[in-house]
Amino acid sequence: MADTKVYRASTTAPVNIAVVKYWGKRDPKLNLPTNSSLSVTLSQADLRTLTTASCSAAYPAPEGDSLLLNGEPSDVSGARTQACFRELRARRAALEAADPSLPKLSTMPLRLVSENNFPTAAGLASSAAGFAAFVRAIANLYELPASPSELSLIARQGSGSACRSLFGGYVAWRMGSAPDGSDSRADQVAPASHWPEMRALILVASAAKKGVSSTSGMQQTVATSGLFRERITTVVPENMDKMEKAIAARDFAAFAEVTMRDSNSFHATCADTYPPIFYMNDVSRAAIRAVEAVNAAAGRTVAAYTFDAGPNAVIYYLEQDTAAVVGTFYHLLGGLDGWKADSLKGAQSAVALDEAV
Ligand code: ADP
Ligand code: DP6
Ligand code: CO
């Protein structure tokens, strides 16, 4: 009798916000970066993608694989999504070849249903949580004995930043040097418990979809920016080194300086792209000034800003400085144009780190 069963598995994946940013591909096909990067994984209790993968021989074959993203059909024909399907199917097919009693899931159409509980394509790492969840949901469905490191290798091909969302805590994506990309994957630099006081304040200036996607923006930067060369040869290697030392020593002032400098450097290369790309706006810049004011008022560094490819701010601080940071920040931003009351309501305070592996 034909197998008409529907096989199903679900997973969630966290957002990660880089403190040393990935920006640039040396191989767009394999999605290999021009530089290593380092991020902090945020708690899934606040921001997460929830993805369910299912497959069945009863799904009409001509429909092929599909993805419903936030309730809307989403294109899966792109080379990077296809690469994830291909890699995962090949691993499942190898299991099925070794054990003929296993159901032939690798031959069935896949349906994915995914939801982000935060703005999509707005510079809050939706592609990171999204592709990490995408890959892990299918790996769970296929019962693959894959480690987070191996899954990070696959997720990287969906979206670079996604390779870091397979780990909790403090995570590095090593750029690697192998032409086939087999050493370009993420690893955990330190678990969240190493420095558990770290918090992130997320300020949503705009939940709108960005005008220039990360994929397209970084390719324009690689092609046209002179400053970018300096960033990948000198600035980032130094920042990676300083950041790993700051995390090892739990030195917040050093962590904060590298975080802010690296964000500034990344946005400078965007401004040096021709024609220039502007992800930050006046509201973003007001948040930078507010962080400076918070630090000046405290007489030491208690807060660090960083901006991904979008206008929204992520402010890192330590739990013991919550009053100085969150209190002062809300007070300052409440009086600034642009951060309207409703955007402050959308702000999420005290997002802790995620331990999940
Ligand atoms: P962001 O700054 O949010 O990461 P990007 O430009 O890097 O923005 O990527 C946004 C794209 O990532 C979306 O247009 C979509 O194609 C993909 N994406 C976002 N969330 C998911 C998800 N949950 N599952 C699959 N793909 C997703
Ligand atoms: C600014 O990982 O979204 O957030 O690999 O093309 O999908 P693709 O790009 P993506 O780029 C992230 C850029 C960044 C910095 C970072 O997360 O390291
Ligand atoms: Co992204």
From TrEMBL:
Signal peptide annotation: none
Domain Mvd1 C-terminal: 200-357
One GO MF term attached to the UniProt entry: kinase activity
Cellular component terms per the entry's GO annotation: cytosol
The UniProt record lists the keyword Nucleotide-binding: yes
Catalytic reaction annotation: (R)-5-diphosphomevalonate + ATP = isopentenyl diphosphate + ADP + phosphate + CO2
GO-annotated biological processes: isopentenyl diphosphate biosynthetic process, mevalonate pathway; sterol biosynthetic process
Domain Diphosphomevalonate decarboxylase-like N-terminal: 13-186
Keyword annotations from UniProtKB, A to Z: ATP-binding, Kinase, Lipid biosynthesis, Lipid metabolism, Lyase, Nucleotide-binding, Steroid biosynthesis, Steroid metabolism, Sterol biosynthesis, Sterol metabolism, Transferase
Domain of life: Eukaryota
EC number: 4.1.1.33
Pathway of action: Isoprenoid biosynthesis; isopentenyl diphosphate biosynthesis via mevalonate pathway; isopentenyl diphosphate from (R)-mevalonate: step 3/3
Phosphoprotein as UniProt keyword: no
Pfam assignment, any one: MVD-like_N
PANTHER family: DIPHOSPHOMEVALONATE DECARBOXYLASE
Annotated family: Belongs to the diphosphomevalonate decarboxylase family.
Protein name per UniProt: Diphosphomevalonate decarboxylase
